[in-house]
């Protein structure tokens, strides 16, 4: 399965971390937080936590913590298809393709639930054929982009003439929740909104990059360390302080199983500053500079993050690089996933 195009999209509304602190200061929810919680938010948002700016699709972001579950779902229903369609339209343009030429569309998300899924909305927005194959993947969390690519590879293998699109889209602001739990507080300081789209075919495209050697690691005993739960009708993120260590250990197992082919660059999901610092010694001497830059510019975008890092890595790639790109993502489950992109 060969990559023919990659494109990303973020909402136009951009906020610095200091501006996010100002939003917390003005929000009525501040009065419901303990002094300790307010100090945690202040410390993260006013000091360097690896993030400079984040993008939010949520209108009137100042009200985000006081919206009802129905309001949050309405925002997801409006903004997720629109953002996914923007990224996919750009990818199709980069591949010089018309939407009618798409045979399959796969979309992953974890920050909202629709039935029919996002593929129904996006196919309508961009004008897919009514017989295009649509597949929605939900519940895989931040690591979902790579399993979605793996599913796409099976479609391409079964139909070698097919043109397949994959989209990872998250409206994390539609899943913001705030209380005195430290993990919930940290989540509110990390996540942001974005989408990434890729186009795949069985024959080489402009990049000549082929996706292969997919691998996955599931650790269900650690499921409660990182997942969403329902609280008061809203999605509430469970984020344990052990996640950086857990992610590093999972990535280390995938890295050890990567095989003999040389790796030129590591493309890692930037879960947060502490996560990147935990991953760095695992993949050394390879650097995670692209992951660091994506985190600083966008925050943690959840599932699209690794594709944002891939986009930057491709732009940074040199003719002198010898080896594959090794992609790795991780998230709810607890699970981790990897694959290679190479010539």
Describe this structure in words.
The radius of gyration is 19 Å and the shape is globular. Helices cover 37% and strands 24% of the residues. The longest helix is centred in the N-terminal third of the chain and has 26 residues, at 69-94. It has ten helices and 13 strands. The strands form four sheets. The protein has a five-stranded mixed β-sheet with strand order 1-7-6-4-5, sandwiched between helices. Strands 8-13-12-11 form a four-stranded mixed β-sheet, sandwiched between helices. It starts with a strand and ends with a strand. The protein is α/β, with parallel strands linked by helices. It has helices at 17-26, 35-46, 69-94, 118-126, 145-158, 182-190, 243-256, 273-283, 289-298, 305-316, and strands spanning 2-9, 14-16, 53-55, 104-109, 133-138, 164-170, 194-201, 210-218, 226-231, 234-239, 263-268, 324-331, 335-342. The mean pLDDT is 95.
Strand adjacency order, main sheet: 1-7-6-4-5
Gyration radius, in Å: 19 Å
Q: Which series of helices and strands comes N to C?
A: EEHHEHEHEHEHEEEEHEHHHEE
Range of strand content: 15-25%
Termini gap: 11 Å
């Amino acid at each position: 399965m060969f990559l023919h195009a990659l494109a990303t999209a973020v909402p136009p509304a951009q906020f610095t971390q200091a501006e996010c602190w100002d939003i917390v200061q003005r929000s009525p929810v501040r009065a419901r937080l303990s002094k300790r919680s307010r100090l945690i938010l202040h410390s993260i948002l006013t000091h360097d936590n690896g993030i400079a700016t984040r993008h939010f699709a949520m209108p009137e972001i100042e009200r985000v913590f006081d919206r009802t579950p129905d309001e949050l779902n309405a925002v997801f229903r409006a903004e997720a298809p629109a953002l996914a369609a923007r990224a996919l339209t750009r990818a199709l343009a980069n591949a010089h393709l018309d939407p009618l030429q798409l045979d399959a569309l796969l979309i992953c998300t974890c920050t909202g639930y629709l039935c029919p899924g996002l593929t129904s909305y996006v196919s309508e927005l961009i004008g897919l054929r009514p017989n295009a194959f649509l597949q929605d993947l939900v519940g895989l969390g931040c690591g979902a982009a790579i399993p979605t690519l793996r599913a796409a590879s099976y479609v391409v293998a079964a139909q070698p003439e097919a043109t397949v699109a994959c989209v990872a889209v998250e409206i994390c602001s539609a899943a913001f929740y705030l209380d005195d739990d430290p993990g919930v507080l940290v989540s509110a300081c990390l996540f942001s909104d974005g989408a990434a789209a890729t186009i795949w075919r069985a024959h080489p495209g402009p990049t000549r990059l082929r996706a292969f050697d997919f691998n996955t690691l599931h650790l269900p005993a650690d499921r409660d360390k990182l997942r969403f739960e329902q609280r008061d009708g809203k999605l509430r993120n469970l984020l344990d302080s052990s996640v950086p260590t857990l992610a590093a250990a999972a990535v280390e197992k995938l890295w050890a199983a990567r095989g003999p082919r040389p790796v030129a660059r590591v493309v890692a999901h930037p879960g947060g500053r502490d996560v990147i610092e935990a991953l760095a010694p695992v993949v050394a001497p390879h650097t995670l500079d692209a992951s660091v830059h994506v985190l600083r510019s966008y925050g943690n975008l959840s599932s699209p993050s690794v594709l944002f890092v891939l986009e930057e890595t491709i732009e940074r790639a040199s003719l002198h690089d010898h080896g594959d790109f090794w992609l790795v993502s991780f998230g709810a489950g607890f699970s981790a996933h990897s694959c290679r992109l190479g010539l």
